[in-house]
Write a structure and sequence with these properties.
Length: 254
């Protein structure tokens, strides 16, 4: 816990799922945590369980450049520094690309990609000052293709390569940039999938560990990448997928 004492972390998408678990993990490790998300009530619920003196909740739509910049500035005003940026906010649209609307495309790209760009750009100066780090939430969908998820694949694929590019750019300043690439994880975004027994049976066949991840399991890896044990790790898109990518998504042989 002492390793994180005095650090300041921004976590986007902190109102539920991986973001909530990540915020709770960093708070437990002694961080000051800035919770960002679009829904104030969700942020308030998460914040109520964290130390008030080390918690700040800021309602933020990361797809809005001005709000992203405001979020970074509020963190600096409240805590005086920034050590870790966790870009976790995300949304998805499913279905054939021919049926996707322009609004669908803009919504997913706005949250999943533009938000990462806006926040990284705003956070680079204070992160250079602290020799801090960035951890992005990409996806196994950003490492390969999925059926009926072309828009999401495109956004997460861009996050994957942006992570690599920023690691090259910022390494000389002592700033590390990595990403986690989860597979199916228990969250609000996946609740419809999790309730589909036939679909879950297929996932159980494809994922060597045989189940979806809990948000805390992804949060633990984010904490590792942000922490001192990963001090020589940068430019990595680390699958947190129960072995799915190792199997190339293929079902087990009979």
């Amino acid at each position: 816990m002492a390793a994180f004492e005095g650090k300041v972390v921004i976590v986007t998408g902190a109102g539920s799922g991986i973001g909530e678990a990540t915020a709770r993990r960093f708070a437990a490790d002694g961080h000051a945590v800035v919770l960002a998300g679009r829904t104030e009530a969700k942020l308030a619920r998460v914040a109520s369980g964290l130390p008030a003196e080390r918690t700040l909740a800021v309602a933020t739509d990361v797809a809005d450049e001005g709000q992203a910049v405001f979020l970074v500035n509020r963190a600096l005003e409240r805590f005086g520094r920034l050590d870790v940026l966790v870009n976790n906010a995300g949304t998805a649209v499913t279905g054939p690309l021919a049926e996707a609307t322009t609004a669908d495309w803009r919504r997913v790209m706005g949250t999943d990609l533009d938000g990462v760009f806006f926040l990284c750009r705003a956070a680079i100066p204070p992160l250079v000052a602290t020799r801090g780090c960035i951890v992005n939430t990409s996806s196994v969908s950003g490492l390969g293709g999925d059926w009926n998820m072309a828009v999401y694949n495109a956004a997460k694929g861009a996050v994957t390569n942006l992570t690599r590019a920023l690691a090259l750019e910022l390494g000389r300043h002592g700033v590390r940039v990595n990403a986690v690439a989860p597979s199916l994880t228990v969250s609000e975004m996946t609740k419809d999938m999790l309730s589909d027994a036939a679909l879950m049976a297929k996932f159980a066949e494809r994922i060597p560990l045989g189940r979806a991840a809990d948000p805390e399991e992804v949060a633990d890896v984010i904490a590792f990448l942000a922490g001192p044990d990963a001090r020589f790790v940068t430019g990595v898109n680390l699958p947190v997928d129960g072995g799915l990518s190792a199997s190339n998504g293929q079902p087990p042989q009979a």
